Amino acid sequence: MRRLCLLLPVLFLGGCSLWPLPKPDPAQAWIDLDSDGKAKLEALRADRKDLEDKRYFQVWPGNHDLQVRYQFEVQPTNIGAQVADPLARTCLVTLNYKAFAAGERYRLEAGQTGWRPWARLYDERNQEVARSTASRCGDV
């Protein structure tokens, strides 16, 4: 019983990341999320509607605005600070793409240059098809 009590908080903290991803709907476009592994990237909204599962996007063909939360660390040397530890930064990044196609699989990649975040969308042929247009950082 004691082991079960210790295991339950771990399961709850894992949230939906413990569940396998659903099977993609062939009538929609699927967007995987990709970051450098050191940062955290979450799907937040598609067309200003909150998503239930923060691990991916799935949208109907056509034009869509995608918003992600990107959490990363900034090295103090990138901002001129005189501290030794990296500084945590959280940003909302928005990306628009007008030509999502049914059955296609896309990859949304995020990263940063210094303290500024960026996001790029790649198609199945690994060609860049869109870049982020806006970001907001701070208490988001």
Helix content: under 10%
Which class of secondary structure composition applies to the elements?
mainly beta
**How far apart are the termini?**
39 Å
Number of domains: 1
Low-confidence stretches: 2-16
- So how many helices? 1
Mean pLDDT, all residues: 85
Strand content: over 45%
How many β-strand runs? 9
Order of helices and strands: HEEEEEEEEE
Largest sheet: 9 strands, mixed
Overall body shape:
elongated
Radius of gyration: 17 Å
* Neighbour order of strands in the largest sheet: 3-2-5-6-9-8-7-1-4
Protein name: Lipoprotein
Model description:
The chain is mainly beta. The protein has one domain. Helix content is 9%, strand content 51%. Strands 3-2-5-6-9-8-7-1-4 form a 9-stranded mixed β-sheet, with no helix packed on it. It is elongated, with a radius of gyration of 17 Å.
Provide a compact summary of the structure.
The chain is mainly β. It has one domain.
Question: What are the SSEs and their pairings?
Answer:
Elements lengths: L1 H13 L14 E6 L5 E7 L2 E2 L5 E4 L2 E13 L12 E14 L4 E9 L2 E7 L5 E10 L3
Parallel strand pairs: 1-7
Antiparallel strand pairs: 1-4, 2-3, 2-5, 5-6, 6-9, 7-8, 8-9
Key terms:
single chain, mainly beta, 51% strand, disordered N terminus, 9% helix, 140 residues, Lipoprotein
